[in-house]
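Message: I would love a firmer grasp of how sequence relates to backbone shape in proteins. Thank you; the sequence and its tokens follow:
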Amino acid sequence: MRFSKWLVATTAIALSFVGAQQAAARTEPAGANAPAVDDNVALDQIIVTAEKRSENLQTTAISISVLSGQNLEDRQVYSLADLGDGAIPSLKVAPFFSRPGALIMNIRGIGVLSDSNQPARDQGVGIYVDGVYLGRPQGLGTALYDVSSIEVLKGPQGTLFGRNTEGGAVSITTKKPTGEFGLVAKAGVSNYSGYSSEMHLDLPAVAGVAIKLSGVVEGRNGWVSNPLPSASDFGEVKKRALRARALWRPTDDISVDYAYDTAFDSTTTLYQQLLARSTYPTALKTAAANIVQADRAKVASIGTSQQPSDGNTWGHRLTAEWKAMPSLTLKSITSYRDLKQGQYDNGSVATSPGVYNASGNFQGVNFGRYSLATFNQMQFSQEFQVVGELPRLKYVAGALYYREKVSDDARTFTTNTFTDAAGLNSTIINNNLVSYSAIARASKVNTTSQGVFGQATYTPPILDDALNITLGARWTRDEKVGQLYLVNGALPVVNGVAAPRNLNTSWKRTDPLVNVSYELSKASMVYAKYSTGYRSGGANSRSLVYLPFNPETATMYEIGSKNEFFDRRLRVNLAAYTGDYKDIQLDFSGQYVGRDPATGQLVTTLRTTTETINAPGAGKLRGFEADGAFAVNANLTLSASFAYNKVKIPATLNPFPQNVSGVLTQITVPIPIYQVYTPEKSGSIAMDYERPFRGLKVVAHLDGNFSDGFYVNYTDVAYDPVTRAVTIKQPKGDSSFIVNGRISLAEIPAGGGKAALSLWSRNLFNEAHVFYRTFSDLQGETGFYNEPRTFGFEVSVKM
């Protein structure tokens, strides 16, 4: 019902633009402001680099979604986190629990099923910026700026992009220096005391060297107020970033591209609400009723200690390219990056242990679990590429070396205590990070990855050169050497022995690709593809015994079609896929005195411990994707995309005893597993309109993004130890329809340049939904709401 309502609203607005255009055409005199003749209308060609060379999207035989720099501006996207509203339906972006400083990235339901916020674990979606792989989910929330395009390459992408791309790859390309003077400057303000400023300066080339300087600063206050005046609100954002880039062209055939970038990303955690108290007979009593907030909160129910989580990243990249022959290019990409990320999380104060107890007397009960974690990473990568072309053969080959050192630590303590029996009032007991910062757990790991790859496309001299056959493969070796050296503030104790738990393991893997495409006409192509990919193995730093787990793999069979009609006014791209998903890395948690799930030996833990195991058997993947665009006329373009993604995971035995109605019980039957962070059905529609107006230009954009909701925990069960019956109680996030809009008056003369004035809004209709929902029969229902409406004004100048 919600989707239908917003669809009607969006359609009405679209029709109003069309009506306004027709009215303007009737009233304005012909001349400079008259619209272009429809006979010249066509969609722009989209150039992608998915196969390590520049090619037309419509002739690249894989499923790709592309957002241009203009698309990002229209949607007011300042970071990858802003793509969480569903601009690309097959791509799901979400914060790790309440922490925007680390992002979960899934494509086609593959990527993260639980927690990759650890040194010895990886994501299943690879993120690349100008060809450089970013190895950690921390730091992905930094500012996006001066972006040429974002290509989302649907997975697996194991052959050309390698490890940790079983779901696919997100390739971000920034704009190169032009060698001519140019300046783009933007500044804006928004609600929640928001501000933004952006600058891109191109300098004239000197001695063949072109230099570009780019920077951005943006931020806003939190959208859930913290009643504790001395503490930060929930949902604050502050970002700033700078990039200096130099492009040297000593000859027409040689280029050397160097870039240095640094970024600061500061956020506070999201606020987890207690949405409803449990009505189950076994439910624990909950503190005062004012803790329950059934609608999106503007003020947290309890004031608590809270500070920003600060992240700092910086790095160097050197890309050298030599066109040795007209049909042969050699390329080298060298990179070093450094990351430091703090994660200070008290967003669950209203749902933390202590808010619930059996007696109902809350006097002196402590609550508010403040988690303080730090994360450090250094990475070096070197990639070589050979890109060539013969009369009937296109090929690419290369090699990659990747090395990273990662460490993390975590500490927790309670910050609040109730001062009355009813739980109506509380006070702060711990607010000093120095006094209460004993490290509870810590780990470190060194990862080394080496790979060689090759891919070739052959066009046989038959069928009028319409048939193309592509074969490719990559060989990879991964090694991880690490150590869990602190648990509960001391050496881990396993089987009575206190000693660090060591990780020293490696894996080898070959990922093949076969792709056959056929051009039905110059504007229509069909293809069939077979490909594989994998996510590296590792170990769980939240574990007690730090057992290694193996890589997980995805094998995909995909068919697709790319089509343009009516002289490139209509574009329709379709893809359908099915495949196997094996050795899926699943997390299970427990607080127990019991046995090591691997050795059977007795172990003891005083905190919740988590083990990652590989699910037995093979899961299944299937889905369908559609992307389309239509140039209605010279002024109006409509676009739409849709994705159906379904993941089936084998039922898996939980190795830990679980708290079943207050009793520690071992579940002895495999339990069903849900796909997480992936809506089954999602879609996006957009409208772009521009028209000359009295010597200026009116530019408008409107988009609507639909999702049917997703799970965030892949299992939540009730177990009857007598009947051995397993009852699934898996809460799902709400469906949603988010509308974003922007309207600008552009081409305003300004001191030799052009200026534009813009009004924009994200979540235009202030739609509210719980995107992250959990439930416990002892506690009740909790969740995170999406961000409320934001809106602002921006002025930009281009010279």
